[in-house]
Amino acid sequence: MILRSIELENFGKFRGQTVEFRRGMNLVIGPNEAGKSTLAEAVPAVLFGSDHLEKFRPWGRNACSAALFFEGHGRTIQVKRNLVTDEVELVEKDDLYHVLSQFSGKVPLRGRSATSREYRDLLESLLGVSDEGLFRATYFFGHHPQEWSGDELAQKLRTLVSGTAETDYAEILDRLLEEHFALTRSNPWGRDKQRDREYENLCQQLVQQSGTEAVPVFVELDNTAELAGQIEELTVELESDRQEYAKGLRYVERLRRQAEEISGPHAPEGSSPSPSQSPSRPQPPANAGTLADQLVVAGLPQNPPRELPELLSEAADIRQQLATLQQPYAALGSREKHVLKVPWLMLFSLVAALLVVVALAWWQDFQLLWIAIAAAACSGTLMGWGGWRHVARKKTLAECDKERSRLDQKKQAAQQRQADLSERCEILGLPSSAIDLVRLQKQVAAHRDLLANYWGEEGATAVEVSVSKDHGDTESVATDAPGAPDASVEAGEELVQLETRMTEFEAELRHKEDRLQELRRQLAEAPAEQSRQAVTPASVLLVRKHDLEERIAVLRKAVNLLAEAVDEFGRSHLVRLNDEAGKLFGKITSGRYAALKLDGDMTPSIQVDSRRWMSFEHFSRGTVDAIYLALRIALAKVRNDGRSLPLMLDDPFVHLDQKRLATALNLVDLAAADGQLILFSHNVELGKRAARERWHVVPLDGDSVVASSEEGGEHAGQLHLL
Amino acid sequence: MANLLGSTHIETLAREESVRGVLVRMALEQAEQADREELVQLEKALKLLLSRFQALEDGAP
């Protein structure tokens, strides 16, 4: 596929002009500011759009548009873009001018709409490229450095194979690794695993805070934070009150039933205690059968030992003791850290200097005796201060040591208790780890809640559950509930009192709910930024920890994915790339060098004889240029099999002297032989070469395209700029 | 969350003969084997990588 022409309706300094190109070598030549770069930029600007409309829009006009005409394989493709509106028209026709495919729509440079995707897919299928970065990386050759030094050439090649114009995949990999290393010392790549990073420091902070985590401490006590605090307190209070209220209602209901039972005539038939029941032992309700299932769901082991509550209580106590020790340890560490060392070296230096002053003063003149005395006094003071600081430091450190050993003793005692507890648990067949015991404690709490709900008399009745082997999985429930009132009068009075209290309680509850609504409304109206500050530090740390863990996991995945992709690219593409580049390089050097290859980090080497390969750095500048060009052209071929667009060289040889320029031009001539190459240059010497080599020449003056030369020898008059 | 991996943008990128293209193809292969949690992580990693490769405007997870 070749670029047949560019129509520039309103583009930069071009208005209503058409620039035509031919297969093979094309030279666009003109002085600086003639519009060569603008013309070169027209190609990606039309295909993909541009962020630099102001650069291309003619001064004083609100129009900017251009069109490209491609030709090849019996087809023509026209792409026209209005750069102001980003409206694009694409038409593909065959030799008989039948429309094969077409597109019309708005496609901005980074458009993500369905229309943009449709257009890019069409470009990909027709021209083999749908991304501006990839297009530039493949077909554009700009100015490159005078000399490729060190890793520069390899870096440039890595950028080119990455698929973008500016990004080197190895740099991306390095940056991702750096980001990972900055977050945590734990890494699978074996680097710098000793020093704690943000994640480890955060975990330590969390451990230190674990003792005070339950107490909310507001970071900012501004109005919003105060509001949030009040809401939090009120919510907790309300929750507790509602539970109490529900319990109260149940208790009142129970009392009412008892009162009715005692009063006799009102008692419903069949509700009186059966002879087999103790009056103090309530009869299990009808839904007792489901209780066993619910208790199993609570997760408590079957037939738990009677010592379980005691063991769990002791485990909680040990946990609390160990957590309490964290804070003094942290304070001790901080205190030790802040004990400064005595700057003996500085002190001795100062004293030595002062003693020299004393000696000089004494030796020079007895009249300077007072200077000697003053210097001696200063020396004495300094040494005294140093000694005092040293003693104070020793004392502080000794105190710290003493405190540490005291804490160690406490910790050891707690650990010993923990070991004893574990042993007792194991003997009883219970799990012994701290985590398991915490879980067990939660299960017991859930168990108790179930039973409390079952009997509906929590707070008034102490419930004890035991699971008897003799009764299989059924629970025998014993209560020490107070007996029912002896007289209906007593029950009635208590009932009235309780109902009055319940009414008051209900009013109080409503008042609190109203207050909560009001506070929430105020908080909603407060600035969002402030309300976010009203969180506990521990919560902030936990959120940060979670974010860090997620970030670390994503970084690790990204690193592995990219490393695998680079390996795969090496396996699947490098052989073909080396093969193509080697052939071209062989032609350029007239068979002097047999082969060219890229190693893992894209550093080129050349085969100098049947067994020896040498790095590119050992070769002359001309040879290195040839290597680069051969690789670029090979890369374009590998990337876009059979659909190659023209290579566009924007004054790439501007730094070369005459000899090197001649070599470089031989290279581009070879490169153009298989397709199309458009060279943009201001070098007048190239005009002579163009005439000799029968290149197609497009001369530009400062204002417009002068004329397009015809293929053949009629170049006279066309190169008037030269 | 699984929008990126199923997008036509990704399909287009996957056709590229570049490290970026290979990267996207490998991510698509891994996505076929991944469970839901792995898929979310894979998509975040791919977003991050493509943003570094200038193939997405904002790929930070």
How do you describe this structure in short?
The complex is a heterodimer of chains A (722) and B (61). Chain A is of the alpha/beta class.
Question: What distance separates the N and C termini of chain B?
Answer: 11 Å
Using only C-alpha atoms, the radius of gyration of chain A works out to 44 Å
Task: Kindly state the number of beta strands of chain A.
Answer: 16
Point out poorly predicted stretches of chain A. 213-222, 265-286, 457-486, 529-535, 707-722
Strand content of chain A: 5-15%
Total number of β-strand segments of chain B?
Answer: 0
How big a fraction of the residues of chain B is strand? under 5%
Helix content of chain B: 55-70%
Describe the structure.
The complex is a heterodimer of chains A (722) and B (61). Chain A is α/β, with parallel strands linked by helices. Chain A is 55% helix and 13% strand. Chain A is built from 19 helices and 16 strands. A six-stranded antiparallel β-sheet of chain A has the order 2-1-4-5-6-7, covered by helices on one side. In chain A, strands 8-14-15-3-16 form a five-stranded parallel β-sheet, with helices on both faces. In chain A, a hairpin with a 7-residue loop joins strand 9 and strand 10. Chain A starts with a strand and ends in a 23-residue tail after the last strand. Mean pLDDT of chain A is 76; it is low at 213-222, 265-286, 457-486, 529-535 and 707-722. Chain B is mostly helical. In chain B, helix 1 packs across helix 2 (19-33) and helix 2 runs antiparallel to helix 3. The longest helix of chain B has 17 residues, at 36-52. The radius of gyration of chain B is 10 Å and the shape is globular. The A-B interface holds A 110, 112, 117, 120-121, 124, 130-131, 133-134, 137, 161-164, 166-167, 169, 172, 175-176, 550-551, 553-555, 557-558, 561-562, 564-566, 568-569, 572-573, 638-640 and B 8-9, 12-13, 15-23, 26-27, 30, 41-42, 44-46, 48-49, 52-55, 57, 61.
